[in-house]
Amino acid sequence: MLGDIYKTVFRWLVGLGFFGVSLWAAKTGYLETRVTLFVLSVPLFICGIIAVWKPVFTFMTRPFMLLIDSVFFPGGKFAKPLLNLKLPAYYINEERYAEALDEYEKILKHYPDEPEAYERAIWLHSEIFHNRAATEKLIRKAKRRHLTLDQRIVKSVRI
To answer: In this structure, what is the dihedral angle of CA atoms 113, 116, 119, 123, given to the nearest 10 degrees?
Structure first.
C-alpha cells in the first residue's frame, strides 16, 4: 500500500517535471525562434503524459468501475466463499472421500472456527485414509483454537 503511494507520487513528480520542461522549451523556443527547442517540447510533453497516465486513468475510471461493481455485485464482493457443509457431506455419502476431504480443507481455510469441518476432516483422515499425522495435526489445531469437538471423534482416533 505504501509502495503504491510512493510510486504514484514519483510518477506525478516526474510527469510534472516533464510538463514544466516542455512548457519552458515551448515558450523559449517560440519567443526566441529556436525551432529545435520548440520541437523538443513535444516529446517532453508526451513523456509527461506517459508518466501521469496510470494515476489519471485510474482516477477517471473509478466511478465507472464502481457503477459496474454495484450492478454485478450489489452486496459487495465476497471476501470468502459461503459456508457450504452439504457438498462435502454429499461426497461422503457418494463415497468420494478425497473430494470430501478437499472440500473440508477449503472450509477450514476460510472458516477456521467451524468444529463440524474439523470433526469430519479428522474422521476422514483417521478412518478412511489412515493418516495419523494429519489427524493429530488437525486435533492440535482445533485445541489451539479452543474448539469443542465431539468426544466420540477424538476418542476414536486414540492419540
So the answer is: -140
Is pTM, for the whole model, over 0.70?
no
C-alpha cell, 100? 470430501
DSSP code at position 81: P
Mean pLDDT for all residues in the chain: 87
Identify residue 22 by its one-letter amino acid code.
S
Q: What is the pLDDT of residues 54-91, one digit of tens each?
A: 888 888 888 888 888 778 777 665 667 788 889 999 99
Q: In the chain, what are the domain boundaries?
A: 2-72, 86-157
Q: Which residue has the cell 494429519?
A: 134
8 A C-beta contact, residue 77 and residue 69: yes
Candidates 118, 116, 107, 115; CA nearest to 84 is: 107
